[in-house]
Amino acid sequence: MSQQRLKIEVARAALEYVEDGMLLGVGTGSTVNAFIDELAASGKRLEGAVSSSEATTQRLEDIGVKVMDLNHTGDLSLYIDGADEVDPHRRLIKGGGGALTREKIIAAASRQFVCIVDESKCVKLLGEFPLPVEVIPMARAYISRQLTRLGGQPELRENFVTDNGNLVLDVRNLDLVDPLKMETEINQLPGVVTCGLFAHRRADVVLVATESGIDRLK
Ligand code: 5RP
């Protein structure tokens, strides 16, 4: 089965969690795009959605979903999003699409976070995928030095500005054996907006599309 087919299968499986009249948080990326297509085809009617990126907002509006401001919704019952890496404890690396900060805010404000991935995203230990870190532009060089001190090899994501007007450093070779500790350590550096480790607020459920069906980690 192609990777795109697996994304469609897991997107369809996530519909099971979506109820009519819900206020839904929606992530960013190609798996989420497949989810938005499946949502449109399902005929389910949401009250509205909170979007994690301008790209997702456009897609949601294209299918007639009302996109709402998190400041006006209160907490959300459900958040659906993809990931770049998932470990067996449902801890994630996210931010390959650069939407990590809004994704982390929505995940934090949601009662249930259902992560949808194909099996290529599952790892025993996080860290093969370079860890995205969103930084305030004036702190770029300072944060790069601090990330190097932590053992990483940061690289500025070229020609990329986040929806929040910031930069992204992609960091290779960090030791992520203790992702909770590393998330705390990176997030407390002045100038870091957030890092793409989702260990403190991990997924509640991970749906994994495999050649033989959908696996569920929870
Ligand atoms: C965007 C993300 C995405 O969830 C992650 O990059 C996975 O994307 P895709 O579904 O395209 O593989 O964190 O910031």
Description:
- The protein is an alpha/beta fold.
- The protein folds into two domains: 3-124 and 200-217, Rossmann fold (3-Layer(aba) Sandwich); 131-196, ACT domain (Alpha-Beta Plaits, 2-Layer Sandwich), CATH 3.30.70.
- The protein is 30% helix and 27% strand.
- The protein is built from seven helices and 13 strands.
- The strands form three sheets. It has a six-stranded mixed beta sheet. It has a four-stranded antiparallel beta sheet with strand order 8-9-7-10, sandwiched between helices. A three-stranded antiparallel beta sheet has the order 4-5-11, covered by helices on one side.
- β12 (205-210) and β13 (213-217) form a beta hairpin.
- α1 crosses α2 (30-42).
- The longest helix is centred in the first third of the chain and has 13 residues, at 30-42.
- It starts with a helix and ends with a strand.
- The mean pLDDT is 98.
- Bound molecules: ribulose-5-phosphate.
- Ribulose-5-phosphate binds next to α2 and α5.
- Residues 27-31, 81-84, 94-100, 103 line the site of ribulose-5-phosphate.
